[in-house]
Amino acid sequence: MPNTLIATRAGWITEPGAVIDAVQSALREALKIPEGDRTLRLIEHPPSHFAVPPGRGEKFTLIEVTMFSGRSMSAKRALISRRSSEDGCLPHRILHRSL
Q: Environment class of residue 54 by beta-carbon count within 10 Å: exposed (0-12), middle (13-18) or buried (19+)?
């Protein structure tokens, strides 16, 4: 069961549930997890508490997926590719980290 944290600055996400659903959809498709396997957190930080790397924009989002070892590199790449294309997300606004 992957444990997923979505972190971003507060104020720009109008539909938090849609963001969570989009990430869950990408996880299910890329990692072939069951529908009920759902451990996701969306945390919106005050701008003063969430530094954005230069050139990334105010909607920069950090998606951290923690999973057991054994997932193939192709599955991890599929997840990154799938998430970056969801809802018109711009890849330079998303930082993926898989553990």
A: exposed
Is the residue at 2 inside a domain? yes
Amino acid at 24: Q
- pLDDT of residue 40 exceeding 90, the answer is yes
| Mean pLDDT across 22-32 | 86
Q: What is the residue range of 78's domain?
A: 1-39+66-88
Torsion angle defined by CA atoms of residues 12, 15, 21 and 22, in that order, rounded to the nearest 10 degrees: -40
Has residue 9 been placed in a domain? yes
- Kindly give, in sequence order, each residue whose CB lies less than 8 Å from that of residue 10, ignoring residues fewer than 6 positions away: 44, 45, 46, 47
Question: Structural domain tally of the chain?
Answer: 1
Give the predicted TM-score (pTM) of the model.
0.77
